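Q: Predict the assembly, please.
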Amino acid sequence: MSNQSTVAFVRREILPPAPPPPGQAGVVKWMRENLFSSVTNTLLTILSIYLIWSVLSAIMPWTLNGIWAAGSLSECREIRDARGLESAACWAVINERWLQLLFGFYPTDDRLLSSLFYADQLAAAGGLEAVFGAGSNATDRIAFVNAMKAELSNLTIFFFGYWRPLVAVLLLVVAVAPILYASLPRGMLLFSLAYPFIGVFLFWGGSVWGPVMVALGIVASLYIGRFVAAGYGMLGGGLAAVAAFIIIFLNPLPFIDHGGLFPLLPHVKGLAASVIPLGLPAIPSDQFGGFMLAIIIGTSGIVLSLPIGILLALGRQSNMPFIRWVCVTFIEVIRGVPLIVWLFVASTLLKYFLPPGSSFDALLRVIILVTLFASAYIAEVVRGGLAALPKGQYEAADSLGLDYWKSMQLIVLPQALKISIPGIVNTFIGLFKDTTLVVFVGLRDPLGLTNAIRATSEWNGIYWELYIFVALLFFTFCFFMSRYSMYLERKLQTDRR
Amino acid sequence: MSEAQTALAERQIDRSQMTVSDEIAIQITGMNKWYGTFHVLRDINLTVNRGERIVVCGPSGSGKSTLIRCINALEEHQKGQITVDGTTLSTDLKNIDKVRSEVGMVFQHFNLFPHLTILENCTLAPIWVRKVPKREAEETAMYFLEKVKIPEQALKYPGQLSGGQQQRVAIARSLCMKPRIMLFDEPTSALDPEMIKEVLDTMIALAEEGMTMICVTHEMGFAQAVANRVIFMDQGQIIEQNEPKAFFNNPQNERTKLFLSQILGH
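A: Predicted assembly structure:
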């Protein structure tokens, strides 16, 4: 021990680091510090343990004694009484109706199901065309399908009857993966770009030429824009791309007749479809439903609202008063009105603004509204990130000669978005849960379907089980999003010493 | 004398390349700037020849930083004319971008990009502004990182480096754009005394190669050793300018005398 009390002191050797004394590390220390540090804390700990125990002891028997096999609620109750249980969940409703909660009234592929599993009966009934073809009798067909489905298990119907939404969602995962995880091959991003068209085709069906034409139209607009940009700069190129887009899709030119939202396309599409007729049975949006609906609205809203929100945030910071004013107005107006009001506005008012005769898909309408709504919030979150960035970063980018878009793309946004990750994901989680609001404009979201299930005589009076199932579905997705945001924050943390 | 000054005094400075040519690098005539109604810069006239090493000093708030920030248009001036390398600064963005890619700038707080590695910090502007191929940009970056003596840090992030190292990276980052003029805005003010020397060493090496430099700094040792002209500013005006020897030994203006007595007096 060196004596440091004298005025002159020189250390001759540097002390090596030593382990902490016993009792100052590990579980015991943690418990002592966090659970039993004082009399009050000890009491609170005991009280909390008691509360947790009493809640669990009420819920767990009900959950774990749940009845999985029953045809109706009354059957469930008989089984419960026979077993002499005080309370038991009737999970049978989930067991029987989970397909409906996932897909709503989206039709199954009955042709595929019957030709895979009921080839004999199909042959006896006169073959595929006799049952499902144009000349077949609808009553016979429904009877055939019902008899078939009554024998097939829900899992079989899930995998083969609903193969279209299933493949679409699996491909969605493949498309989203390279965006979420940078370690995946970059080539996969090409698939991500193509996915919107593949997804639309699988979900909605119809001629394959519809989505193909739209994709080609967008590519053509972009090429025209790029071509013009080479001669007239970014702004000219952008305007040309937008003009080309409008001519291809919205067609304001009088010499081609009007009709529908995509007027130039039907002609080309009709031609292509007559040469190579390729497609799936078309399924209109009003048959979409269940959790699938939440995924469609949620992912489209998330994917579209991020870029729009970023542009709005940049616009709000712009030096150009007109752009700033437009962005501020948009953000404040959208944000100042509840989403449900916008959904009603979209379902009623929008009709007056569109050309007569053009019908606007209910689901598309909702997606646009949800996107705009979320983008206003994203814009404000990103604005916070932009404001948190030191001015020196902008100046350093400027002083190196980077122009506005490059300094935004390379310097400002990567950092601002990193700061904004928690807020952005928060908005996305909110958006995803808000998709349940579409029940009020007539779309069958999972919550709306619980009402439909309860309206049947078998399951009248059942509440908790359905709500718990829906809650778990949403929780799984939202929990993944929140975990992913934490992973991303850790991964991007480069400024730690 | 401070530690850094002692270190400077010990260094042998190679003056063979330190030549001032007749070619004009920067010409500022009748330049005025206001922040709102506050008159920050008043009637600035300054001609900088190629190869000159100018030190700008003065009390805080005297407008020295604002002056050099006007040269690469980080700040807009309201009156007068600034011509850099034959390009006159106007509101035309093309001119501004042209000047900025020719003029390097080093900031007090380094302003490295924290989300990019040291190497990426150095290659970013050459790749995106000068359209240099990535490999070539990386070679150039490593050349300059070696010059500022930190090639081994190339793959780290700025947050992992000390202040002095960060500032040397910032200098290397500017040099990667092959600028013809370098501006230094108090490059050592945010550094620990031990780190000031390494940054000043880098700056001296740059001067030895004949770089045109304008440095806002309070390192009077640096001014005496390297500068061929010292400018003193107060209240937004150039009060006095002279060769370093005459400036330090025989200041003319009362304000200059007071300033020098305060910073050299202890």
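The mean pLDDT of chain A is 85. The beta strands of chain A are 206-207, 279-280.
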